[in-house]
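User: Can you model how coenzyme A sits in this protein?
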Amino acid sequence: MDNNHLNGLLRPKSVAVVGASATPGKIGYTVIDNLLKGKYEGKIYPINPTATDILGLKVYPDIGAVPGTVDAAIITVPAKLVLEVAEECGKKGVKGLIVITSGFSEVGRKDLEDDLVKTANKYGTRVLGPNIVGTLSNSDHFNGSFAPGLPLEGKASLISQSGALLIALDAATYTRKVGFDKLVSIGNMSDVDFADIIEFLEEDDGTYCISLYIEGLKDGRRFIESARKAKKPVIALKAGVSAHGAAAAASHTGSLAGAAKVYGSAFKQAGVIQAADLNDLFNRTLALSLQPGMQGDNLLILTNGGGVGVLATDAAEKYGLPLKFAPAELQTEMKKHMPEFGSSKNPVDLTGMAGTEWYYDSVHYALTDKWVDGLVVLYCETAMTNPMEIAGAIKRADVEVGNGKPLCVSFVGGEKSDAAIAWLVENGIPAFNAPDLAVNAIAALREYAKIHQDGGTPRFIPNEKARKASLEVIAKARAEGRNALTEIEAKQVFNAYGLPVTVTSLAKSEDEAVKLAKEIGYPVVMKIVSPEILHKSDAGGVKVNVKDEAAVRDAFQTIMKNAKAYNADANIHGIAVQEMAPWGTEVILGSTSDPTFGPTIMFGLGGIFVEVLKDVTFRVTPVSEEHAAEMLDEIRGAPIIRGARGEAPRDRKALTRTIVAYANMILDLRDEVAESDANPVLVYEEGKGLKVVDARIILTKK
Ligand code: COA
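Assistant: Here's the modeled complex, given as structure tokens:
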């Protein structure tokens, strides 16, 4: 998006309030009041057809009457007047509309919303909202909203889809001591959406960390793209993760793709750090806006109490940073700052005797030690120590070392400890009242650094030849009025994209089956091919381990007989004769078209793992080899792939390559393929590859 227009919206140099009111209690009054109280330095133009003075400002009857240019117009007139106002603003050359007014798509008036965007965009004017609280920027002393006031100053910026939540968080920034530079209410996202604002904030000098409260994205792919490009940390809290997409799915994959899973995966791909709840959003935002990323996994914990040390150790494991013993050299040094009965391992327990100097010395040394990638300092309030002095010592050591290693702190105690926490935060050190919160905060810093360490940018490679071959197969099925491919057809498509399917051919007669079986090599598998018989085994339509010619003839007759008995009207294409793949670890690959993110790929262990445990994971296509490898590791059954209980490890390379190829296939055929499964896929030992044994493709409705 043209940054100039977003600048006009979010950092305007002049602002009109259309629907400004002289009546206290009205939103049109509050917005003017907020602009004045925030000490906005740009021009303010209240617009109202009858008033002449609002809070001492000259009022204009319409926006056309305003002398000079207007960057942003805050709209506070009722919905029925908004189109007319948008037209006038467009004519005036206003860059952006901040539409506070409700009464659009959120109440079923999508038509009105579309007209609003069309009207504004006709003039190049962009629309924030409608149905928003407004937008606030501390750097610009701009409170263009009816929120209580500018938030506590800080380095993060928040984009919120809920206006009410933004108001609540705004006030809470003071009590929680988490500062923000900008708060942007995004509402119905009729025009400007998360991606636009993320791109804007990425360039914004006042923003070091981008925080998001998301209810639902409109264009998931654009979101991933903009977040992935961001060098600043992006953290998101996603609300509303029930009943999504999974309804009426024709494939296995479709029925397993819930919002929570797909969003979680998309966030990973986008390099977005996740917050578990509102408190977590605050805590992690605080850490990400104050401290640098943690470049390695070596976390050291310093404490004056065993109990909080154990709690922090548990938290470290929980948040993916399990503690390791400190190396000998570091332990020797730490021993100098503790009594005999202290512990120098990790957590380093300075004991309850630890005073200001011991804290200072050990923090100082720990930050300089080359093994340490990040430090968490814990303190329990004692009668012999002064929390503020301990806080001062920690800060002093950090400033003196000044080597950019991340540091998070937890003080547990009473008022004095709370005051010390507040002081630390004001002085740039994330501090919390519980040890697990400090560990969680540093884990967020580790996640952030990791995101920027793994390249993993996927590449989509269209495959002309494969696409042409697949479209021919698909066209034939469509011509017959089918929306599902047969197994043979689906395998032809998979094969065209380089997926290793079992050799499968169609036999229309018994003799043909014998000939094919000989070519493929015994033993073979034989399966009924009929668009009307999808559950082939239930129909008695499958014979495995067919060993010789006589058995082929016998199987052919039996399958035909069973199929006819199962469904007399079924249109039988013939019998598939296929290579009998040796036993391997069963996995499932699949794809679905997610309503938000489009073509999405799934991976999981097959059989009971997928049927009962739903142990699957998703990625939005395309997928890089790195992301494919992550998928193998993040299912609960991951040890089975790695080779559990004496089994040889499975062929990971073949699996990751297949996932990448599968993702390319469904992206290339996104207009044609709605859902697909490769189930089962049999995976062999390292170096021995895999085989797609069964395949299914459901076509898009045309
Ligand atoms: N140009 C400028 N001002 C105009 C106008 C025009 N063409 N037509 C009317 N106005 C004035 C009105 O005269 C009134 O000023 P007044 O107090 O001097 O009479 C002012 O605009 C507001 O109009 P009014 O009809 O009094 O509406 P309201 O203040 O009761 O409600 C909204 C307007 C926008 C606040 C209301 O429609 C709304 O949408 N509320 C919900 C907002 C919200 O919650 N947003 C989402 C948060 S998550």
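A couple of observations from the model: The chain is about 40% helix and 20% strand. Residues 18-19, 21-23, 26-28, 47-49, 51, 76-78, 81, 85, 100-103, 131-133, 163-164 surround coenzyme A (CB under 6 Å).
User: Helpful, thanks.
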